[in-house]
Design brief:
27% strand; alpha/beta; 6-stranded antiparallel barrel; Rossmann fold
Length: 390
């Protein structure tokens, strides 16, 4: 009988999840390992090209699964592989495609954490008699004794902090979640891997590409996934933001993101950036770097963390993308599922489709999907699902 109970550990075959399992085992938990097969690279294309660049192309490769299993064998705990490709495709890949077709820039990792990983993990945890689930995220979770709410906080290693990607996890799911790496730095975790006898994963590189696009070519992925996409969207207008004049023709609005500078093939003698995308007219607006600046956004599909809601205007610290350093902002809740956020200073390239995460100190206050900005038209669909007509 273990001292702390039975925990299901999500194992990708990388160093973080491997050390996660080792730390919990050392603390006295009974460990069960699980690797989730989320995607079949043979159905997407791109994997062969990615293989030329790096030995490791994602968390669903046979190599990764074997690495996870070898850790389980080394540390003597059971390990299972589960197939969740259907759920992953329905929730994450379809939404990824839909967002780009609506002129937004999606964040599939947040969708996966919110709707797939935690739901799938808890379902399997119940089936395997596990009280807890654990992952190798660099974040912390605690229960606030005064409010009773479960609060996600930044990890100690600010360079690796992943709290931004966890804002969507529901309270009942957080109640059973453990993040053992939250108190450590990445170098410390690699050193621990060696100490635990896990040398084969200690120096594995981190994966930064989207897991189901191993060659990092999202444009190619969209072309393969949507029949005739190029023919339907090519030839739209590049329009100068300041003058509203047409300055060129583009390859199709889904193939551009706000803030993009490279690959525009526009010659002005000075850099220009994508400032806005209008999917309904197939128009890509461009302008000078300062024209990316905005101060106001509206976020929807909210999930509250440290608090259950905002009764009054609140000062917070807002982050608009994963590597964004963040900035102070004033937040007002408009209805049950909408926040208006005004930053103290202009922020560059606030992008519909990305996540807004609000912090109170290190604690996640709330999060939501950026629906519109002061530089964009309001989102047509509150649930972000409807496909535009191409």
């Amino acid at each position: 009988m273990s001292r702390h109970g039975r925990v299901l550990v999500a194992m990708s075959g990388g160093v973080d999840s491997s050390v996660c399992a080792a730390l919990l085992r050392e603390e006295g938990y009974e460990i069960v390992g699980i690797t989730m097969k989320t995607w079949d690279y043979a159905t997407t294309g791109g994997a062969a090209e990615a293989k030329k660049r790096t030995k490791e192309v994602g968390c669903c490769t046979l190599e990764s699964m074997n690495d996870a299993r070898s850790v389980a064998v080394r540390m003597d705990f059971p390990h299972f592989v589960v197939d969740i490709r259907q759920e992953f495709g329905d929730w994450v890949v379809d939404r990824f495609t839909t967002d780009y077709l609506a002129g937004r820039t999606p964040n599939p990792c947040v969708l996966c954490n919110t709707h797939i990983k935690w739901a799938a993990l808890l379902q399997r945890a119940d089936a395997l008699g596990c009280e807890h689930i654990a992952t190798g995220h660099y974040a912390r979770v605690r229960t606030d004794l005064q409010s009773g709410r479960h609060v996600v906080s930044r990890g100690r290693d600010r360079n690796k902090d992943q709290s931004y990607a966890l804002w969507g996890i529901e309270q009942e799911h957080l109640a059973r979640s453990i993040f053992p790496l939250g108190e450590y730095t990445k170098p410390a975790i690699r050193s621990m891997a060696t100490e635990f006898g896990l040398e084969h994963v200690a120096d594995k590189p981190d994966s930064y590409e989207i897991c189901f696009i191993p060659d990092n070519d999202y444009r190619g992925f969209l072309k393969r996934r949507v029949d005739g996409l190029e023919e339907k969207v090519e030839g739209g207008a590049f329009v100068m933001e300041a003058t509203r004049k047409i300055v060129g023709r583009h390859q199709g609005y889904p193939f551009y993101t706000i803030g993009q500078r490279r690959g525009l093939d526009l010659a002005f003698g000075e850099p220009v950036y994508v400032t806005r995308i209008d999917a309904m007219t197939n128009t890509v607006y461009v302008g000078a770097k300062e024209e990316l600046d905005g101060q106001t956004l509206v976020a929807r599909q909210l999930n509250f963390g440290k608090v259950a809601g905002l009764k009054y205007e609140t000062l917070a610290f807002g982050q608009i993308r994963y590597k964004d350093p963040g900035a102070s902002c004033l937040v007002r809740q408009r209805g049950k599922d909408e926040l208006e956020v005004v930053f103290e200073e202009p922020r560059s390239a606030i992008t519909p489709g990305q996540s807004l995460v609000l912090y109170d100190g290190d604690d996640v206050l709330a999060g939501g999907w950026i629906a519109s900005t002061d530089k964009s038209a309001p989102a047509e669909s509150e649930d972000f699902i409807a496909l535009p007509t191409l």
